[in-house]
Amino acid sequence: MKNKPQTRLIHAPRKAPQYIATVQPPLYRASTIIFENTNALFNRHWTDEYDYSYGTHGTPTTFTLGDQIAQIEGGRYCLLAPSGLSAINLVNSCFLNHGDEVWVSDNIYGPNMEHLRNLESRYGISVKVYNSIDVDSFTPSEKAKLIWLEAAGSVTLEFPDLINLVKKAQKHKILTALDNTWGAGLAFNAFDFGDEHLSVDISVHALTKYPSGGGDILMGSVLTRDQKLHHQLFRMHAIQGIAISGDDAAQVQRSLASMQIRYEHQCKSALTLLDWLKSQDDFVQVLHPADESSAGHSYWKEICTSGLSAGLVSVIFKPEYDLTDIRYFCDQLKLFKLGFSWGGPVSLVMLYHLKDMRQLENQHLKQGLLVRFCIGLEHPEDLIQDIENALKQLQKYKYEQPIQQTE
Ligand SMILES: *Cc1c(COP(=O)(O)O)cnc(C)c1O
Prior knowledge:
This protein is of the alpha/beta class. The protein has two domains: 38-257, Type I PLP-dependent aspartate aminotransferase-like (Major domain) (Aspartate Aminotransferase, domain 2, 3-Layer(aba) Sandwich), CATH 3.40.640.10; 259-398, Aspartate Aminotransferase, domain 1, CATH 3.90.1150.10. It contains twelve helices and twelve strands. The protein has helices at 5-10, 38-42, 60-73, 84-95, 110-123, 162-171, 227-239, 246-256, 259-278, 297-303, 323-332, 380-399; strands spanning 77-81, 101-105, 126-130, 144-150, 175-179, 202-206, 220-224, 283-287, 312-317, 337-338, 348-352, 370-374. The protein has a seven-stranded mixed β-sheet, with helices on both faces. A five-stranded mixed β-sheet has the order 8-9-12-11-10, with helices on one face. Strand 2 (101-105), helix 5 (110-123) and strand 3 form a beta-alpha-beta unit. The site of pyridoxal-5'-phosphate has 13 residues, from helix 4. InterPro entries: Cys/Met-Metab_PyrdxlP-dep_enz, Cys_b_lyase_bac, PyrdxlP-dep_Trfase, PyrdxlP-dep_Trfase_major, PyrdxlP-dep_Trfase_small. Keywords: Lyase, Pyridoxal phosphate. Belongs to the trans-sulfuration enzymes family. It comes from Acinetobacter shaoyimingii.
């Protein structure tokens, strides 16, 4: 029986060979996955680790990426989400129930705090804030269910007392979830750190940052080593319809090959900038976990035995510089672009009002406006030049403003 042209357009006779060797694995795009027969349909188990039954559950392309992320970070089971924040939300919505208490560090990724505050007001979940460098500020009650950790913390980059925080959480049978975006699985192993081989229960990673590396793709991952936890997350992932595009997964997978090299380069450039920034008079504080004067430095040294750190440095400007001055400074930068995120090829700058962002007293932080530099792949000398130039312009602007001519 010969089909009509319209049908032949759809059912093409040619089939790709089952296996040909290419450097990158083949890309699968799927909503529908075709079952060979009814037997295959009725024998599917959507809770199986690699279940090919529908696009939202995954394809060889997404499973390949998930396996690789798991391998890099030292986890076992990986779920992918369309953004880092969506991965965070998956953890929150999976484990927090009415009446539970959740602990978050004061320097946690801001939108995570916002999501938790939203759950608090709507679902009766109690949000408690602790200081990541003071384990005594973490005082869980009987109702405590989950603690969020972040190493190093967002914007102010304090490295937490991870060992004692995790130990205390384990003692109280509280789930530990780490936002592992900064370390990217390269600076330290979240599933095996410290002399006592401690492990967090869950590691969340904004793959948007270093794994993507392009500043162009949004994605997140949730990793566990425990099968029971994974099944809970897996079920929530499935019923919430969290899915990613095969094309995006293939792009991130392709970038992974260079991730370590990029991370190390950006780490080194950030350290070069750190030294230079410290020699400048315009800042009262330069924040970077590898710097001895930064809060949590000893914890960084203890945990990040690789000696690595992400390419982020924050500075606090002298208090005499007001918001108008700092805006002027940021606008003078040419290589550093004004924008959120990090881990891409282009260096970025962002300004922050710490007063509006923190809930606890942070005595280790000096007064002044904060600017965060995210180091890209440019040559560090050019980046220094860019900042030097912007600082010169700033000083001119602030101290040498021409006296208004009156006629
Ligand atoms: C960027 C980021 C996220 C969120 O990732 P998105 O993909 O932008 O949603 C979460 N945590 C940290 C620490 C981040 O830097």
